[in-house]
């Protein structure tokens, strides 16, 4: 069996350091906002080139709190992608704003800036691009639009830790960056965890208040806040893995390049596209094929994992049925009907990649 991701192998390679750090945290009994959380925030900010980084309980909370801190409120519109995990749009709804879904670029699967421009109204307050699957969005074009119209840009970096655009890390290209550390992510913890980056000391301080019940001093609450704190044990895991993130991402890119070289020789399948000027970190390796179901069946028969990310665009989800009635986003719909993600993780061996390619080739023969 070839899995989508192999967390066990990665853990075994780092076990001594992770176990030692967790035991030290247990012995310290500082479990909430302890020294490892503070150290991880500093180390992540330094790696990313961000002025400030604030740990929170999940990637969803990172998006939610970033929108709260940005002042997004009921009646506002936030332009975002329909081809993403639902957390992107959930966070917009949490603050009472309206997600405005705009179609994606057929090559990158990220927001199409020209369509974003056409969707801006007097109620638009922010653009929320997703760096999907680890491919940075066209931030130059989106930031130019934002500057022209006085909008905020909140980056969804849930899948892009370590990805760069123009030499700059995702999460430092907009007003704020929102990261997820779900276990399967390029930088993942052993539970839920998230991080918000910002260039503003004032915003960072506000986020620290928001994540801790609106409290700036114990038992003093200045506003309605949330219980959204990255815990100490997850911070230990993240600090350990952060030291290896470049190695992990290089391993994913090695796998991706081998896949792409092999898929180019096949008819009926389109490998993922990499934009010039950016570094894709392949949280997912997602191909397109009108014969997706045949490929899936062959892989499953060979006990090779695969997955469809995402089978239903957000504007077609039941929760958005009323607001999006009659909305057609043809690129997102076509990509959802043809996309297939293959196993991709740093430890995936070349011979396993070759077996997967052989299985796909046989299915398409």
TrEMBL record:
It holds the Pfam family DegT_DnrJ_EryC1. InterPro entries: DegT/StrS_aminotransferase (IPR000653), PyrdxlP-dep_Trfase (IPR015424), PyrdxlP-dep_Trfase_major (IPR015421), PyrdxlP-dep_Trfase_small (IPR015422). It comes from the Bacteria. Keywords: Pyridoxal phosphate. CDD domains: AHBA_syn. This is Erythromycin biosynthesis sensory transduction protein eryC1. It comes from Acidihalobacter aeolianus. GO terms for biological process: polysaccharide biosynthetic process. The active site is at 185 (proton acceptor). GO terms for molecular function: pyridoxal phosphate binding; transaminase activity. Belongs to the DegT/DnrJ/EryC1 family. The modification N6-(pyridoxal phosphate)lysine is found at residue 185.
């Amino acid at each position: 069996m070839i899995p989508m991701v192999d967390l066990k192998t990665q853990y075994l390679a780092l076990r001594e350091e992770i176990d030692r750090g967790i035991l030290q945290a247990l012995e310290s009994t500082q479990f909430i906002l302890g020294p490892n959380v503070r150290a991880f925030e500093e180390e992540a900010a330094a790696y990313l080139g961000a002025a400030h980084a604030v740990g929170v309980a999940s990637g969803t909370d990172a998006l939610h709190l970033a929108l709260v801190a940005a002042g997004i409120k009921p009646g506002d519109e936030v332009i975002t992608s329909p081809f993403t995990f639902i957390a992107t749009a959930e966070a917009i709804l949490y603050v009472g704003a309206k997600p405005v879904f705009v179609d994606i670029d057929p090559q990158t699967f990220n927001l199409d800036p020209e369509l974003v421009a056409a969707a801006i109204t007097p109620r638009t307050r922010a653009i929320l691009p997703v760096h999907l699957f680890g491919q940075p969005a066209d931030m130059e074009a989106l930031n130019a639009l934002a500057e022209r119209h006085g909008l905020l840009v909140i980056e969804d970096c849930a899948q892009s830790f370590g990805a760069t655009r123009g030499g700059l890390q995702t999460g430092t290209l907009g007003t704020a960056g929102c990261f997820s550390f779900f276990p399967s992510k390029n930088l993942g913890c052993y539970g839920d965890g998230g991080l918000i980056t910002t260039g503003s000391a004032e915003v960072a301080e506000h986020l620290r208040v928001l994540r801790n019940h609106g409290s700036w001093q114990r038992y003093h609450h200045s506003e309605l806040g949330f219980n959204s704190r990255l815990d100490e044990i997850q911070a230990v895991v993240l600090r350990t893995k952060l030291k290896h993130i470049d190695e992990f991402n290089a391993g994913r890119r090695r796998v991706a390049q081998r896949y792409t070289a092999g898929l180019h020789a096949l008819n009926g399948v389109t490998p993922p596209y990499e934009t010039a000027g950016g570094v894709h970190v392949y949280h997912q390796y997602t191909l397109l094929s009108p014969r997706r179901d045949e490929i899936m069946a062959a892989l499953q028969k060979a006990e090779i994992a695969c997955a469809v990310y995402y089978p239903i665009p957000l504007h077609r989800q039941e929760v958005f049925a009323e607001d999006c009635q009659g909305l057609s986003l043809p690129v997102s719909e076509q990509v959802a009907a043809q996309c297939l993600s293959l196993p991709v993780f740093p430890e995936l061996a070349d011979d396993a990649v070759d077996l997967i390619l052989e299985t796909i080739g046989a299915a398409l023969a």
